[in-house]
TrEMBL record:
It comes from Alistipes putredinis DSM 17216. It comes from the Bacteria. GO terms for molecular function: site-specific DNA-methyltransferase (adenine-specific) activity. Keywords: Methyltransferase, S-adenosyl-L-methionine, Transferase. This is DNA methylase N-4/N-6 domain-containing protein. InterPro entries: MeTrfase_D12 (IPR012327), SAM-dependent_MTases_sf (IPR029063).
Length: 51
């Protein structure tokens, strides 16, 4: 994906894609924020995916 702009506007898409891959209960998994330039993806996912 070649996207230049706010990842915040993609938060629902990113969250839904993660849930499709790992399921609705990712509490026993480790999350790596590969979009860490602005940390927005990590902040959005912090409560559900953080260990």
């Amino acid at each position: 994906m070649n996207y230049i702009g706010s990842k915040y506007s993609l938060r629902d898409f990113i969250d839904n894609t993660i849930k499709k891959v790992v399921g609705d209960n990712p509490s026993d998994m480790v999350f790596c924020d590969l979009f860490a330039g602005t940390c927005i993806v990590g902040l959005i996912s912090k409560h559900e995916l953080a260990k």
